[in-house]
Amino acid sequence: MLTEEKTSADQIQAYDRLSELKAFDETKSGVKGLVDAGITKVPRIFIHPPELLDRNNNIIPPKNTQFTFPVIDLDGLEKDPVRHQKIIEEIRGAAESWGFFQVINHGIPESDMEEMINGVRDFFEQDDDVKKQYYTRDATKRVVYNSNFDLYTGKAAGWRDSMYILVAPNPPLPQELPEVCSKILMDYSKKSMELGCTSLKLLAEGLGLNPNHLLDMDSAEGLAMICHYYPPCPEPDVTIGAGKHSDNSFLTLLLQDNLGGLQVLHQGHWVDVPPRPGALVINIGDFVQVMSNDKFKSIEHRVLANRGESPRISVASFFTTGPRPSSKLYGPIDEILSDENRPKYRSFTVKEYTDHFRAKGLDGTSPLLHFKI
């Protein structure tokens, strides 16, 4: 018995996390590769401490608590001035209280959304030898496929694989993109850019500014699309799809399939974002929270590990500045500040923020704490 205990202790002590991370990374097969291999237990590198899973915190809404996730109908936005103003008010309210909302009648055909979901599925489920040519951790590449951008810096890995595509300001050539989804990637990204610019104009108006104010600050100069593939998980209670985080963007536009799993931290409770046919999810990014001096909220959210039998697929379009380093500083917008509304953040460059975000990883704390005055 003593020998068995000693062996067990030695095994625990001998756990070399870095070696296991490298071994997983070097397969270039991601989490899907583990599932395809038929594993029945989640490897240690994916097991999250209870505090990161919030299993010890009573933050799931009580049964008698009802939250209605905001849904905003954009129909009539361009044709009816009264309707236009009502939409601004609805978006302002959602941005202040939730930081998230869904939009319907947004101009992107549902058929394009379905084709985009199918294209992402086709990429991740194609032959490994074809897919692996895109596997890299070089963030300067136009197309990056890997598992967990913060694999080596996070406390535990998430149960997901991802493909990152930088589509603006300089779109990749068709031959640079995966053949199985090249056309729909470019078609959908153009329509996402249009909707993102419209949303940023409405947010600027919600702040009492000129509609182009946020756009003139390069908030939609860059567009990065991240396509996530969340395979079924054999032990969904010990890991998570994506840990608690806010977005390192000005604005994020999310297309999700019908499986669910996205949760928003609202009033101290994790609230499900219900999949809605034809709807897209929009959320405020960290930069708009700073620029609005906390009027609009970049809310923390997460994705649960997939309990189903089919993969969950989502496509997040992040509106950012361009990829080239810039000396431009971002902070609270002067026009909305006053003696009663003093700046809450110091100014910083996008590079300074991004370097801090990447070094920190998805550790459950907001990167904005680093920039608070």
From TrEMBL:
The family database entries (Gene3D superfamilies) matched by this protein are listed as: B-lactam Antibiotic, Isopenicillin N Synthase, Chain (2.60.120.330)
The yes or no answer to whether the keyword Transferase is present is no
Q: Ranges for the Fe2OG dioxygenase domain?
A: 221-322
DNA damage in keyword set: no
Q: Which superkingdom? A: Eukaryota
Matching entries from SUPFAM superfamilies are given as: Clavaminate synthase-like (SSF51197)
UniProt KW keywords = Iron, Metal-binding, Oxidoreductase
Q: Which family does it belong to?
A: Belongs to the iron/ascorbate-dependent oxidoreductase family.
Q: What is this protein called?
A: Fe2OG dioxygenase domain-containing protein
Which species expresses this protein natively?
Rehmannia glutinosa
